[in-house]
Known about the structure:
single chain; six-stranded antiparallel β-sheet
Amino acid sequence: MAAPPKRHRFKLKWVFLVVSITIAVVMVATLFVTFKFSYSQEGPHTVLGGGRIVMIGTTGPKQAEFSNPYTASWGMMPAREWIWRPRYRSGNISGIGWFSLAVPLWCPLLPTALVTVWLFRRDRRHPPGHCHGCGYDLTGNTTGRCPECGAVNSTTHTI
């Protein structure tokens, strides 16, 4: 039996919160330290630094000649410019094609943070005696309907 929608939303909001915080921490950390990752000598490698993630690779038949000597490592970052939008560059050096794709870390942070805020606001609870829809204080309301938003409430208080 599947969990009710509120249970899924409860788990999802905490997952999005952890992801948002992780991206924010990595973004700040990469302003000071560069992380380089490579999975093979000939394949693309990834650089995480300067508040962005960059994938660098080669294309074409001479790809094997353009080897990457790095394995997973880290080091202090030299001065780099800050980029505000994703950037794609490519070129050709001695018959070896190359490309780089740079994505600032605020690009994935913004949507995850917005979804996190939306999920937390959607699950906020109102105190007893308030409308379940808008939070309006229903003290003294005998109609059973919220005068602010029109929602039908089962908990109304009479004087």
